Amino acid sequence: MGGDLEKLNPESKTTKKLEEFTCESCGEKYQKEIPLVGGKPLWISRECHACAEKREKEEIAAAELALQEARDKTRNNWRHFCGMPDELLLKTFDNYDRTEKSIKSAYRAASEWAKAFSLDTPRGYPSLLLYSEGPGVGKGHLMAAIVNSILNKWAGDPKKKCPLRFESGPSLVKRIKGTYNLRKGDDIHEREDEVYKALSGVALLLLDDIGKEKASDFTRETYWFIIDERVKSSLPVIISTRLEFDSKELENLMGEDTVDRIYGMVRGIQVNIKGASYRRWKGIP
Fold it and tell me: What SUPFAM superfamilies does this protein map onto (predicted)?
């Protein structure tokens, strides 16, 4: 086909010619074979091989640096946007006090969970439930450490929307009730369906301090909808609570069916944390 075109149009014939150039970057002389079409040379970059290779490497490195900076900015934005309390933003596995045996066990369970979890492939991953009888043993710290761990290793598209949400039980109830009785045409405040959509669709949902809100038909309906939607989507949830799995209090708060679903999501595993209150021990707020 190419030969036929050349016969019809001799000017389309392509040949090559060896010529000498001066590199525009380093000023050195170099030879390069250039293509000629119809006897006319095509434009080529006036760079020697070494300078062209160096420039390409620098461009790749600059692009990688820009991508890393964009990801760092996105990670930082997500930390603040996801709803995690300010006092937990700097909590990590490295600064988690794990002197007591049961705390070491909880630390191991949480760190292994975070290590294997990926924000880009969350579906089908087991959920996690952190339980303690008393307050101040570090459940919130471990939840924040999980968030920071998975964000630090994340290497996805920096233009992606925040893929996780951190809520406390009481604030969740207040947030949803705050959508009631909105005036017609109010486009500033979020709607109830928008709250549920945000909670059910994120790659990872964290529910802290479940049990501090007052049990009611409203809480049972709320938790059923959220948990049911996440089960349908095969998306995990991390829960911290002072209410045991088999307690009537948890069933009264969330509903028997919801608790049963959570049991399946965590595969029957409740991570128990025992110990004295860290706040009392350290004398901190």
Answer: P-loop containing nucleoside triphosphate hydrolases
Q: What is the predicted pLDDT for the residue at 87?
A: 93
Instruction: Specify whether 51 is located in the same domain as 92.
Output: no
Domain match, 148 and 276 both: yes
**Residue 256 contacts residue 223 (beta carbons within 8 Å):** no
Rounded Cα distance, 145 and 64, in Å: 27
The one-letter amino acid code at 235 reads: L
Q: Are residues 101 and 177 in the same domain?
A: yes
Total domains in the chain come to 2
- 55 and 133 in one domain? no
Residues across the chain: 285
Q: At a CB cut-off of 8 Å and minimum separation 6, what does 131 contact?
A: 240, 241, 242, 243, 244, 245, 270, 271, 272, 273
Q: Of 56, 81, 106, which closes a domain?
A: 81
The tens digit of pLDDT for each residue in 177-208 reads 877 766 665 555 677 788 888 888 899 999 99
Closest Cα to residue 168, out of 139, 194, 126?
139
Instruction: Check whether residue 266 and residue 178 sit in a common domain.
Output: yes
Low-confidence ranges of the chain (pLDDT < 50): 2, 5, 8
Residue 161, SS3 per DSSP = coil
Give how far the C-alpha of residue 178 lies from the chain's centroid of Cα atoms, to the nearest Å.
27
CATH of the domain at 242: 3.40.50.300
**The two three-digit tokens of residue 221, written as one number:** 């309906």
Q: What whole-number distance in Å separates Cα of residue 165 and Cα of residue 202?
A: 7
CA gap 200, 105 in Å, rounded? 29
* Domain final residue, candidates 81, 114, 144: 81
Decide the pairing of beta strands 204-210 and 128-131.
Answer: unpaired
